[in-house]
Each structure stands twice: as structure tokens, then as C-alpha cells.
From TrEMBL:
Keyword Chloroplast among UniProt keywords: no
Entry keywords, A to Z: ATP-binding, Cytoplasm, Glutamine amidotransferase, Hydrolase, Ligase, Nucleotide-binding, Purine biosynthesis
EC number of the protein: 6.3.5.3, 3.5.1.2
Catalysis: reaction(s): L-glutamine + H2O = L-glutamate + NH4(+); N(2)-formyl-N(1)-(5-phospho-beta-D-ribosyl)glycinamide + L-glutamine + ATP + H2O = 2-formamido-N(1)-(5-O-phospho-beta-D-ribosyl)acetamidine + L-glutamate + ADP + phosphate + H(+)
Compartments where located: Cytoplasm
Quaternary structure, from the entry: Part of the FGAM synthase complex composed of 1 PurL, 1 PurQ and 2 PurS subunits.
InterPro entries attached to this UniProt entry: Class_I_gatase-like, PRibForGlyAmidine_synth_PurQ
Organism of origin: Leucobacter alluvii
Record protein name field: Phosphoribosylformylglycinamidine synthase subunit PurQ
Pathway in which this enzyme or protein is active: Purine metabolism; IMP biosynthesis via de novo pathway; 5-amino-1-(5-phospho-D-ribosyl)imidazole from N(2)-formyl-N(1)-(5-phospho-D-ribosyl)glycinamide: step 1/2
General function of this protein: Part of the phosphoribosylformylglycinamidine synthase complex involved in the purines biosynthetic pathway. Catalyzes the ATP-dependent conversion of formylglycinamide ribonucleotide (FGAR) and glutamine to yield formylglycinamidine ribonucleotide (FGAM) and glutamate. The FGAM synthase complex is composed of three subunits. PurQ produces an ammonia molecule by converting glutamine to glutamate. PurL transfers the ammonia molecule to FGAR to form FGAM in an ATP-dependent manner.
Length: 234
């Protein structure tokens, strides 16, 4: 059973949800602490949502220089799969594992909604169980989710196919090019603002045409990682 670490920072809110999502995907969640340097031999890492260090300075800025992130960055650069969700995405950007930045939502308000996404890149450690162009629904909740980058970076992201997810139907936070999530070139690091860990079990996810709260599109993020790790170990 693949061991997938979930980092808890001061102010993390969704670390337990991420652990539960890993269990539902037949992985073994391993709790990692922000002040440690020990990754406990995990095979992948999730940086969860929340308000790490109270979002002081900028969301994710202090977490990016925490002791555990020294090890996460080094491991990611060696090819370890890393998923950053919401505040975790902000930490990835602040750690320079993904380019660009995330700023206050364009309408200056916190937003919470079930968000339609288009899968743009299904060739990563966290997305290969999706189909390119597929529409999925994932819960979204953030106040600082507006993705920004300069023209050169946007051209690079689009040209290299590194936009992993794009907002569909409505752009909820003013993100440039409707960008909801990114991948690095190697495909082992993925970050997105919506919360896949909140759509892993029928009865607790987004509404679907079939039934209320039956959406489980988020489960495939974690199944993708577990499947890739099992294949690697075989």
C-alpha cells in the first residue's frame, strides 16, 4: 500500500480530509509535521488546504520556508509526486515549484461553490485517470485564488501544456486564462485551487444530475497517485 504524506502546518484545515481521501484510494496516509525534516519514507506528498501560519505576509509564504518544505522541494525535484490543494497550491508557488502567483479574488470576497473544471493535462502523476477535455466538478473555497503570471510565463504554460485544469462556466476569482491548476514539466508536481478531497465519497460531495451530493470526481486524483506508485513498485 503506497505511503502518501500529508503535511500539517499551523492553520491547516483540510489535512484530515486529505488523509481520508488517500485511504479511500487504497493508500496509506502518513501525517507529516511542518517543523520536521523527516519525510518518513513516503512515496508522495499532499500539501492540504487551510490558512498556513494565518496567511501572514502572503498565503503560503511562511509555509514555503518551513523546515518540512526544504525536504519537500528537494524530493519534488527528484521526482516525488506532490499535490498542492488551495493553500497547498499557494505554498507550491511560493516555493517556486510552480510558476506565477495567487492574489485576492477579483471581487475581493471569499468564495465557496461547486466548480466545474476542464481537465487540460491528463498526463501527470495526479491526473492520469482523467481524460483530456473532460468536465469535472470539484468544490472550491478560497479568498486568494486569483492566478497571475506575466505574459512570458503564461505563454510558456500554455505552450508546454502545463495548465492542468481550467475553470469552466464561470471564472470564480479572476484567474488569468481561467487557470485553476498547474503541473510542472515533469508531471510529478500539481497544484490547484479547488478541493478534490471534498469529492471522494458519495453522500458528501457535489450535487450531480443523478443525485444530490453524489459527486466523487476528486477521488481520481488520489487513485491516480496510488496507481502510479503501485505500478512503479511492481
Amino acid at each position: 500500500m503506497p505511503r502518501i504524506g500529508v503535511v500539517t502546518f499551523p492553520g491547516s484545515l483540510d489535512d484530515r480530509d486529505a488523509q481520508r481521501a488517500i485511504r479511500r484510494a487504497d493508500g496509506e496516509p502518513v501525517a507529516l509535521w511542518h517543523a520536521d525534516h523527516d519525510l518518513q519514507d513516503v512515496e508522495a506528498i499532499v500539501l492540504p488546504g487551510g490558512f498556513s501560519y494565518g496567511d501572514y505576509l502572503r498565503p503560503g509564504a511562511i509555509a514555503a520556508v518551513s523546515p518540512i518544505m526544504t525536504e519537500v522541494v528537494a524530493a519534488a525535484n527528484r521526482g516525488l509526486p506532490v499535490l498542492g490543494i488551495c493553500n497547498g497550491f499557494q505554498v507550491l508557488v511560493e516555493s517556486h515549484l510552480l510558476p506565477g502567483g495567487l492574489i485576492r479574488n477579483a471581487h475581493q470576497q471569499f468564495i465557496r461553490r461547486d466548480q466545474k473544471l476542464i481537465v487540460e493535462n491528463a498526463d501527470t502523476a495526479w491526473t492520469h485517470r482523467f481524460q483530456p477535455g473532460e468536465e469535472i466538478v470539484i468544490p472550491l473555497k478560497n479568498g486568494d485564488g486569483g492566478y497571475i503570471a506575466n505574459d512570458e510565463t503564461l505563454k510558456y504554460l500554455e505552450g508546454e501544456g502545463l495548465v492542468a485544469f481550467r475553470y469552466a462556466g464561470v471564472n470564480p476569482n479572476g484567474s488569468l486564462n481561467d487557470i485553476a491548476g498547474l503541473s510542472n514539466e515533469r508531471g510529478n508536481v500539481v497544484g490547484l485551487m479547488p478541493h478534490p478531497e471534498h469529492a471522494v465519497e458519495a453522500g458528501f460531495g457535489p450535487d450531480t444530475p443523478e443525485a444530490m451530493r453524489s459527486g466523487i470526481d476528486g477521488l481520481r486524483f488520489f487513485e491516480s497517485a496510488v496507481e502510479a506508485l503501485v505500478a512503479r513498485a511492481a
